[in-house]
Amino acid sequence: MLNYETIFIAHPDASEAVITDINNKVTGIIKKYEGQVNKIDDWGTRKLGYKIGKETRGHYVHFQY
User: Fold this and answer.
1) DSSP state of 5
2) What does the alpha-carbon distance between residue 22 and residue 29 come to, in Å, rounded to a whole number?
3) The pLDDT of residue 1
4) Quick check: helix, strand or coil at residue 65?
5) 3-state class of 2 per DSSP?
6) pLDDT tens digits, one per residue of 4-44
7) C-beta of residue 9 within 8 angstroms of C-beta of residue 58
8) Could you tell me the sign of the dihedral formed by the alpha carbons of 34, 39, 45, 46, in that order?
9) pLDDT reported for residue 52
């Protein structure tokens, strides 16, 4: 079995409901293609490596599947 990882970065002010909705969408896409989500790790809000737009922080979520 192959293992993959994906990290997505949401807006730092995104509510918990928005993050949960994104998690559900990503999980749905993985399952649609017969994948299995092993772990979802919410890293919280962290500093970005560089500015994106005017943002210097982002909410990180890590998927292993």
Assistant:
1) E
2) 11
3) 78
4) coil
5) coil
6) 999 999 999 999 999 999 999 999 999 999 999 999 999 99
7) yes
8) negative
9) 92
Q: What is the pLDDT of residue 18?
A: 96
Q: Which of 50, 51, 44 is nearest to 9 (CA)?
A: 44
Place of tokens 């890590």: 62
What is the per-residue DSSP string for 6-64? EEEEE-TT--HHHHHHHHHHHHHHHHHTT----EEEEEEEEEEEEEETTEEEEEEEEEE
Which amino acid does the sequence have at 30?
I
pLDDT of 60: 97
The tokens for 17 are 């409901």
Q: Which of 1, 44, 8 shows the shortest CA–CA distance to 26? A: 8
Give the Cβ contact number of residue 3 at 10 Å: 7
